[in-house]
Amino acid sequence: MASSLTCAGIVWAFLSFLCAAASCVGFFMPYWLLGSQLEKSVSFGTFRRCSYPVRDESRQMTVMVEQCGRYASFQAIPSAEWRICTVVTGLGCGLLLLVALTALMGCCVSELISRTVGRVAGGIQFLGGKCSCGEGMGM
Q: For residue 124, what pLDDT is reported?
């Protein structure tokens, strides 16, 4: 199996993949904020939530839905800032995953990653990390 990466590049590829996977799992999990509402434990992330209140029109009261799920639509996300956070964090995770998978392919394919491609990938990875950490937009 020929590789276009040095030993440091192979370590970078595997660490990049682990970090990208952790970022994606964190993005998809609804445990960013934890709290309680109507004496029930609630949590939510950028586009998923667990145990959320819903208005029951037949009984004319608010009830807690005790399950995890996504918002019904992008517009159902509570605020514009939260929607921006969802897009920016998702973009960051996508960039991290793209670089990590490209780097892993570089472990198996010779002449795939040159010094220039490695530098560009590092820049893209930096941008993806800034976006997924919330620093990209000054958050």
A: 93
Grouping H, G, I as helix, E, B as strand and the rest as coil, residue 32 is coil
Spatial distance between the Cα atoms of 123 and 72, rounded to a whole number of angstroms: 35
Q: What is the DSSP letter of 111?
A: T
By the 8 A CB rule, do 13 and 5 touch? yes
The tally of domains found in the chain comes to: 2
Within this chain, do residues 60 and 35 fall inside the same structural domain, yes or no? yes
pTM of the model: 0.76
Give 34-69 pLDDT, tens digit per residue: 788 777 788 877 777 788 777 888 888 887 878 887
Beta strands, E only, 1-139: 33-37, 40-44, 48-56, 61-70
84 contact partners, CB below 8 Å, separation of at least 6 = 137
| Main-chain dihedrals φ then ψ at residue 41, nearest 5 degrees | -75, 130
Which of the listed residues 69, 97, 120 is the one where a domain comes to its end? Answer: 69
